């Protein structure tokens, strides 16, 4: 996963196999013959995430989660997923218009790229029953002016790189999550 073949890298491979450079229409005819392959733009995936994201790891996680919930009689509406999503400033996906070949059945179409970007981070949280908790936003910088933000019940923070820190995560948990969670049973 993550090392796709582009038009630019395929042409030399075909030339090496056939002994001559393929024509400009070769790619189009190749795709017409091989309906199981598509040419699409991938999304970026950091190599560290790619290493941990595999079927065996994900299956094992959910087996452990199910066993824990059953053992402690925790209902699904008390299960929350909190995550953070970085939004790239000044570029990102639009900068690379190159497409890569993938199996038509392959839904996860990624190409590894560096995660070293300027970000605004969004902290989001959703319960297994579909209810959501208000978000948090982390901007790159040292100082901010509270009067710029008028949304109540939303955490606005800054960090040197725009990423969530342990401190910012704990603040979001205390200021936003605890007052807004809707646990059915008091399990803490």
What would you say about this model in short?
The protein is of the alpha/beta class.
Can you describe what's shown?
The protein is of the alpha/beta class and 188 residues long. The protein has a domain at 75-96 and 116-187. The protein has five helices and nine strands; from the N terminus they run E-H-H-E-E-H-H-E-E-E-E-E-E-H. It has helices at 7-18, 26-33, 47-52, 55-71, 166-180, and strands spanning 5-6, 37-40, 43-45, 80-88, 100-103, 110-112, 119-127, 132-140, 155-159. The strands form three sheets. It has a four-stranded mixed β-sheet, covered by helices on one side. The protein has a three-stranded antiparallel β-sheet with strand order 1-5-2. Strands 3-6 form a two-stranded parallel sheet. The protein is extended and about 65 Å long. The model has no long low-confidence stretch (mean pLDDT 82). It comes from Athelia psychrophila. Residues 118-180 form the DDE-1 domain. GO terms for molecular function: nucleic acid binding.
């Amino acid at each position: 996963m993550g090392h796709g073949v582009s038009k630019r890298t395929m042409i030399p491979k075909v030339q090496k196999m056939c002994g001559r450079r393929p024509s400009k229409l070769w790619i189009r005819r190749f795709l017409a013959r091989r309906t199981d392959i598509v040419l699409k733009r991938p999304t970026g995936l950091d190599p560290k995430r790619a290493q941990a994201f595999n079927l065996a790891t994900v299956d094992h996680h959910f087996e452990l989660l199910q066993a824990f919930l059953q053992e402690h009689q925790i209902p699904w509406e008390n299960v929350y997923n909190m995550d953070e999503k970085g939004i790239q400033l000044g570029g990102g996906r639009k900068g690379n218009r190159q497409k890569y070949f993938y199996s038509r059945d392959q839904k996860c179409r990624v190409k590894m790229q560096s995660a070293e970007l300027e970000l605004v981070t969004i902290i989001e949280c959703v319960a297994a029953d579909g209810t959501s908790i208000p978000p948090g936003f982390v901007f790159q910088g040292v100082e901010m002016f509270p009067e710029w933000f008028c949304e109540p019940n939303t955490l606005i923070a800054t960090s040197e790189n725009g990423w969530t820190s342990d401190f910012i995560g704990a603040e979001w948990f205390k200021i936003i999550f605890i007052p807004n969670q809707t646990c059915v049973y008091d399990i803490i």
